[in-house]
Structures are given as C-alpha cells and as structure tokens.
Design goal:
Elements (H helix, E strand, L loop, with lengths): L6 E6 L3 E6 L2 E6 L2 H13 L7 E5 L2 E5 L4 E2 L11 H15 L11 H17 L5 H11 L9 E3 L8 E4 L2 E5 L6 E3 L1 H9 L6 H8 L5 H21 L10 H7 L2
Helix pairs in contact: 2-5, 2-6, 3-4, 3-7, 4-7, 5-7, 7-8
Length: about 250
C-alpha cells in the first residue's frame, strides 16, 4: 500500500481554499471565472509559472514551484538585493508583453471603491478618521491616466518564488488583467519599502515613487474590510495598517 501523503491547508476562506498534497497544490475556487483567468494568464505570461496538472472546476491542480517565496508581508525578507532585482526584471518582462484579452478596473471604478471603503473604515471605527483621510489624499495620486499593460494584479512577494538570485516562478494569476504597471510594483514592495530601489533597478525604467506610495495607500485602504471579513488581521506588524501609518 503506498504511503499516505499529508494534506496541508495553505490558505482557506469563504471564497477559496488552497491545499497541498505532496508536490501538487489544489486550488478550490467558488468563482470558476477566476480559475479560467488564471489558467489562460499562465499560458500567455512570458515569465515562469506553475505547471497546470489538471483543471476540473472548481478545482485547479498546479505543480509546486522550486525555491522559496521572496518573502511574506509582515516579516523581513531574507532574499538578496539581486533576487528583488530579478523580481523587478520579471515584472518588466510581463509589462512589455501583449495585453491580455480581458480588461481591469477603470479609474472610475477604483475611485468609487475607494470612496466606499473609506466610508466603511470611518463609520465602523476600524481606523482613525485622520489616518483614513491622510491616506485617501495620498491614494488619489494613483488615479491618474496610465497606459494599460499586462499586469499580474496580485504580485505580492508570497507569490514570487526564487532560488538564490533567480526567479523560479510566479503564482496566483486569478487577478491578471490590463492595468497600471506601477500597481504591480507597489504590490510587490508593499510593507517592504526599503526594497523598492532594488526592484526598480531590475525593472530598468525610472518610476514615479509618489505614485508607488499612492498605490500602497490605495491597495491597503481597499483591502482592510476584505481581510477582516475573511479572518485575516491587517493590523499585524508590518501589514496594511502599518503601511497606512507610515504615510503619516
């Protein structure tokens, strides 16, 4: 009888769950569209992605990537400056690729979401009014016109895997879309502001640091309600609330 492998719960909430069995990850998603986007995005992305072993909705099976995550939000990254630069170079390769066939959120949609989330944060006393007001002002700089590129859409450091100084793959493409390149760079460096210079070095193009900071504020303001309602703590050290406090 073959040895029984343990099942590891990687993440689980009301929308989706990810399990690991041996060298296979099983992603179970309540929304089949997200999995369809993920499969198609990985097929056309010009950067390393996990192998799709099979896809039978609502389950997507992916092969494990070699290496380790670039880091985790709320924890200092031990990855080298060269590894962070490699992540920036991978982002540039993606952004230079042909646009995916599906759109992303418009500036008007983002502005409406920002209004709603800020109102919720203040009316429910989740955050102090001055903290929300200051970051909302900072966030508005992100809502300028941009030229759409192929964005990952959730390029957090836990989704970028490295082996030494080399990128071995990028995970979780369900939010991939046409969007602002600086949003991806901001997501990659959220909570790790000291690594922005390394990422920009690898990216190879000067970027507007004020817009990056604006995206840090905007992403954090938009994320907090979802995190709270799905059992995560955005007030943990180094996470979204600390990112907002840094703008004060």
């Amino acid at each position: 009888m073959p040895a029984v492998q343990e099942v590891e719960v990687v993440v689980a909430h009301r929308e989706r769950a990810t399990l690991r069995v041996g060298d296979t990850f099983l992603k179970i998603d309540a929304d089949p569209v997200r999995a369809d986007v993920e499969v198609e995005a990985m097929a056309i992305a010009p950067v390393p992605t996990p192998e799709v072993r099979w896809h039978r909705p609502p389950v997507l099976a992916l092969a494990a990537l070699p290496g380790t995550a670039l880091g985790r939000l709320g924890t200092p990254s031990t990855a080298s400056p060269a590894a962070w630069a490699a992540a920036g170079a991978a982002a540039r390769t993606l952004h230079d690729a042909p646009l995916p066939p599906w759109p992303g959120r418009s500036r008007d949609e983002l502005a409406g979401q920002l209004d709603g989330e800020c109102e919720w944060l203040v009316s429910n006393a989740v955050l102090p009014t001055d903290l929300v007001t200051r970051n909302r002002h900072v966030a508005e700089a992100a809502l300028r016109p941009w030229t759409p590129v192929f964005t990952h859409g959730d390029l957090q450091i836990a989704h970028v895997f490295v082996d030494g100084d080399e990128i071995t793959g990028v995970l979780d493409w369900s939010e991939a879309c046409r969007g602002d390149a600086l949003f991806d760079l901001a997501t990659l460096t959220l909570g790790h502001e000291e690594r922005l210079d390394d990422v920009v070095t690898g990216y190879g193009v000067d970027v507007d640091a004020d817009v990056i900071r604006a995206w840090w504020s905007l992403r954090s303001l938009l994320a907090i309600r979802w995190l709270v309602q799905h059992g995560f703590d955005p007030s943990s050290p180094g996470c979204e609330v600390d990112v907002l406090r840094a703008r004060m």
